Each structure stands twice: as C-alpha cells, then as structure tokens.
Amino acid sequence: MAFRDRNHFWTIAGIGCIAIACVAIGVFQFARHSDLAAKAREESIVNNGLTARVAEIERAIVPNLLWDEAIRHLDNKFDHA
C-alpha cells in the first residue's frame, strides 16, 4: 500500500522532462548531421565543377597555342638591313 499512497507526480514529471530533452537533443543532432552532409555534398559539386571547367579551358588553350606557333613559322621575316 505504500506505493499507492505516495505522490508520484514529480517522478513522472522528471521522467517526462528527461524524455523531452532526449528527443530535442536527437532532433538537433539529426539537423546538425544533415547540414554537415549537405555542406560536404555541395563542396564536392563545386569542386567537381571547377575541376571540369579547368580541364575545359586547358583543352581550349592547346589549339590556340599550336595555331600561334604555326602562324609564327609562316610569318615573313623582317630584314633590318
């Protein structure tokens, strides 16, 4: 009968507060993890895009260099004398 006679309000309230705190911490940890994953994904996308752009520019420069060299060899030579 001792169990029924005691007031268990504070015990149940404490357990409820602990449960709410655990849920809140879990939600914040999930949000933090999701943000970090999204940041890593976006950084990877930007890095891949920049790498592809640099490779594209490198491929575009080579024909120009070859063309400039060809023109230099075809150009008339100026005689200072």
Would you mind describing this structure in some detail?
The mean pLDDT is 85. Helix content is 86%, strand content 0%. It is built from two helices and no strands. With 81 residues, the chain is mainly α.
Low-confidence stretches: none
List how many beta strands DSSP finds: 0
Helix content: over 70%
Percent of residues in β-strands: under 5%
| Structural Rg | 36 Å
* Number of alpha- plus pi-helical segments: 2
Describe the oligomeric state of these chains in a short phrase.
Answer: single chain
Average the pLDDT over all residues and give the rounded result: 85
- Total domains, how many? 1
Order of helices and strands: HH
* Biggest beta sheet summary: none
Structural class: mainly alpha
Give the distance, in angstroms, between the N- and C-terminal Cα atoms.
125 Å
Outline? rod-shaped
